[in-house]
């Protein structure tokens, strides 16, 4: 049953975007089967069934690798500290949707994100 539902995509689950995260897969499993599975177990299952992390099809020509590295090592740690000090929420948004945590999307092996 799960193998039939996953290819339909998140829109078939009533989602407005195409993001298929581990949390959404956990919910998809939990509803009909009344099972609570850990996210790591779901990640292992997805890998066994031929899914991997989605990666961009290509990198932007304008991409500045030094700026990206600097953001990850300097800006991001400062942002985390600021958010914690303010007891605030930090949201992540991209073409696929909005999330309260950085998410990893899954797709069949060899399939790039659009």
Entry keywords:
114 residues, alpha+beta, two-stranded antiparallel sheet, two-stranded antiparallel ribbon, 4 helices, globular
Quick structural overview:
The chain has helices spanning 2-5, 22-33, 39-48, 65-86, and strands at residues 51-53, 92-94, 97-99, 106-108.
Compute the gyration radius: what is it? 17 Å
Which regions have little confidence, pLDDT < 50, spanning 5+ residues?
Answer: none
DSSP strand content: 5-15%
* Structural class by SSE content: alpha+beta
Number of strands: 4
**Helical content band:** 40-55%
* Main sheet overview: 2 strands, antiparallel
Number of domains: 1
User: What is the residue-mean pLDDT, rounded to a whole number?
Assistant: 76
Order of helices and strands: HHHEHEEE
Measured between the Cα atoms of the first and last residue, the distance is 27 Å
Give me the number of helical elements: 4
What is the molecular shape?
Answer: globular
Explained architecture:
The structure is a single chain. The chain has 114 residues and is an alpha+beta fold. It has one domain (2-108). Helix content is 42%, strand content 11%. A two-stranded antiparallel ribbon has the order 1-4. Strands 2-3 form a two-stranded antiparallel sheet. Strand 2 and strand 3 form a beta hairpin. The protein is globular. The model has no long low-confidence stretch (mean pLDDT 76).
């Amino acid at each position: 049953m799960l193998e039939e539902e996953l290819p339909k995509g998140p829109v078939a689950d009533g989602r407005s975007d195409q993001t298929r995260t581990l949390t959404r897969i956990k919910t998809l499993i939990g509803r009909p089967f009344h099972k609570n599975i850990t996210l790591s177990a779901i990640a292992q299952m997805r890998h066994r069934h031929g899914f991997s992390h989605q990666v961009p099809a290509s990198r932007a020509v304008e991409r500045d690798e030094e700026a990206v590295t600097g953001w990850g090592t300097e800006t991001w740690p400062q942002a985390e500290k600021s958010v914690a000090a303010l007891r605030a929420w930090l949201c992540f948004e991209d073409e696929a949707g909005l999330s309260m945590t950085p998410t990893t999307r899954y797709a069949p092996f060899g399939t790039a994100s659009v």
